[in-house]
Amino acid sequence: MSELETITPQFTSQEPALAHGNIMIVDDTPANLRLLEEMLREQRYTVRSFTRARLALAAAAQQRPDAILLDINMPEMDGYRMCERLKADPTLAETPVIFLSGLSAAEDKVKGFRVGGADFVCKPFQLEEVNARVEMQLKLARARQAERDLLEKTLNGIVSTLFDLLQLTSPILTGRSNAIRDVASHVAGSLAIPGRWRIELAAQLALLGCITIPVELFQRAYREDAITDIEEASFRGHPRVGAEMVSKIPRLEGVGIIIRHQLGDPTSALPSDKELASEIGLLQAVIAFDRKMADIRRPKDALAEMRRAGTFDPRCLAALEEYAPSRAAYELCEIGVRDLQPGMVLDCDVVTRQYKAVIMSEGSVLNPVWIRRLINFAGTGNIDNRLRVRVPRG
Predict the structure, then answer these.
(1) What's the maximum distance between 2 C-alpha atoms anywhere in the chain?
(2) Which CATH number fits domain 330-392: 3.90.1010, 3.90.220, 2.60.40, 3.90.105?
(3) Are 155 and 251 in contact (CB under 8 A)?
């Protein structure tokens, strides 16, 4: 018997065009399964039924149900244990579980809620009660998902706005930020870092605080040129500024901590969270590597200096040794401002005709905000209508 056959439900009713939800029923009594399936089918639910918890778990892993009606007393694995297994799986943990039981004692219900159950239906079943409890759990689950989706969109919008701010401030900061992100993504992938989004976002926004210091100072300090003590203090303060901006955003507190420690922060102890501390070490290595690359430009020389320092995780250094900077191919052309597209790169400074002020520097990677700014300036006749840009090939 194939693996697919072993998880085929005992009873299945599917009406995709009409289905209100995908419900899984787990009960070792076939008569109960038939009764519940018939009741739910009349309410236009898609139903999958199983007599064993092990088979139900395998099926749920293949296709996540919207809700599970789960008997408590079953052979091999009871309902409590199956519910614990479901809640331990990140992909299934949010699935509402409604226990089916002839047990009415308070301690039985308390145990069910403790292992993650959302509700109870007592045997014998009543159609109205089963339908009402299933419908309520589906409504609650969909409301939670809608809230998560909204928060995700809000978070993405905030992060995008922060990076737009970085782009508007300086194309140099933007270029270095993209380089740091690319290196961090490579290292995180090589080390199989779980939840890579946090370290990649911290890398992308690592230089956010640099918008508070002059670009010329940033360039000299980042290349580790000779600077005054006051300038050094100003540069080394940028991680704290960036961290304070990011940490105000819900769910990004960890990102802010990583950013704060990118250059080492003697005023703040490293977090006790091992994963967070590891990601801080990763970003520190990536920043050090990129700073040396900005000056030396040869990866082998940069890594040799970092190894001599003896302060970086050897695993990060090994991953950096395999890093090869991506080199996008560009085609140089002259194009009208209204034909500009995100991703194009300015090949010259954009200067106003009247005051000769630079409104956008050579090397700026165009985004929708910058393109709109150029269109507005061109509309007043204050800049040329055609600009020299580099267009990515492919």
Answers:
(1) 86
(2) 3.90.105
(3) yes
From 8-12, 161-165, 236-240, the region with the lowest mean pLDDT: 8-12
pLDDT tens digits, one per residue of 12-71: 444 444 457 899 999 999 998 999 999 899 889 999 999 999 999 999 999 999 999 999
Its pTM surpasses 0.70: no
Tokens of 151: 């928060």
Contact between 284 and 199 under an 8 Å Cβ cutoff? The reply is: no
Q: In what order do the strands lie in the sheet with 330-336?
A: 330-336, 386-392, 345-346
Listed in order, strand segments (DSSP E) in the chain are 11-13, 22-26, 46-50, 67-71, 97-101, 119-122, 330-336, 345-346, 350-351, 358-360, 386-392
- Percent of the chain that is helix, strand, coil (3-state, to 5): 55, 10, 35
Reported as a single tens digit per residue, the pLDDT across 219-245 is 999 988 999 999 999 999 999 999 999
For the chain, which residues make up each domain, given as ranges? 3-144, 170-321, 330-392
Domain 170-321 matching CATH 3.90.700.10: the answer reads no
Query: What's the pLDDT tens digit per position in 336-364?
Result: 999 999 888 889 889 999 888 888 878 77
Chain-centroid distance of CA 179 in Å reads 19
- Cα–Cα dist 204/195, whole Å: 15
179: helix, strand or coil: helix
Task: Please state the CATH superfamily assignment of the domain spanning residues 3-144 in this structure.
Answer: Response regulator (3.40.50.2300)
